[in-house]
Design goal:
One of its GO terms (biological process) is coenzyme A biosynthetic process. By secondary structure, this protein is of the alpha/beta class. The chain is built from five helices and twelve strands. A hairpin with a 2-residue loop joins strand 2 and strand 3. The structure holds ligand PMT.
Length: 224
């Protein structure tokens, strides 16, 4: 029997990539498998939380006793997250959301057009920033997937997106995406820096949630 540290909480988690269509048969996406976000969802459920998992397209099954909402695009993910956020106490954004989508999606399969092709992209909404700003009482935890200057960029996202905490994740060169293990550093809005050792994504999920619980309690006692 695990310590039920998250009993009484609704934890909202995003996982996996988003898929942005170009035409009826093609799309833009990234290398996220969903493993990290799904591991956090399972760990949160085992720690007593009611878990809502909003997932982009992955090959993973919805874990037992978790409410899963499947989406494809960033816009669909934002809609699902917005509907659940006000019912939740903690939001963990592990999804690798596409920053851009095609400005005009073709309704018919695009034809070959000579030696180069230019696609006009427009920015997707930032789900994490939108949600944290719209729900100031929600404890928000972002991820930052970076190939370089990981801590510096993560710190910038923590502040810009008004988060309680960010999980800085070195990616590229065989790290992070689609692996069974991972290593992260956690930064908080109070200036704390916790380095977690490399381990399986299943174990890391519990380690991340232990830190979330610790700082959630601190945040609540500061408010009262
Ligand atoms: O899925 P796996 O294969 O297991 O890999 C795990 C992972 C590497 C994808 C995961 O650990 C991770 O780092 N997820 C965040 C990936 C990411 O897109 O990071 P980012 O630095 O681009 O985005 C920063 C934060 O803003 C993230 O919390 C992201 O979910 C969020 N975001 C980004 C853009 C956007 N339009 N909306 C968002 O909500």
């Amino acid at each position: 029997q695990l310590d039920q540290k998250l009993a009484g909480h609704q934890v909202l988690i995003t996982a996996g990539p988003t898929r942005e269509p170009l035409d009826p048969v093609r799309y833009l996406t990234n290398r996220s498998s969903g493993k990290m976000g799904y591991a956090i969802a399972e760990a949160a459920q085992k720690m007593g939380a009611d878990v809502v998992l909003v997932s982009g397209p992955t090959n993973l099954d919805c874990p037992d006793q978790i409410s899963c909402i499947r989406v494809e695009t960033a816009e669909e993910m934002l809609k699902a997250v917005s509907a659940e956020a006000s019912k939740s106490t903690i939001f963990i954004s592990a999804a690798a959301v596409a920053d851009y989508r095609l400005k005009e999606v073709a309704t018919k399969k695009m034809k070959k057009q000579g030696s180069s092709l230019h696609l006009e992209l427009e920015q997707n909404p930032d789900i994490l920033a939108t949600t944290s700003k719209a729900n100031p009482d929600l404890f928000t935890v972002g991820f930052a997937a970076e190939t370089n200057d990981v801590i510096e960029y993560a710190m910038g996202k923590l502040k810009r997106k008004q988060l309680n905490m960010i999980v800085a994740n070195q990616v590229g060169g065989g790290k992070g995406f689609d692996k069974d293990s991972n290593q992260v550093d956690i930064l908080t809005d109070g200036g704390d820096h916790i380095s977690l050792p490399e381990t399986s994504k299943q174990q890391l999920a519990f380690d991340i949630l232990d830190v979330v619980c610790q700082f959630y309690s601190k945040d609540q006692s500061n408010k009262s």
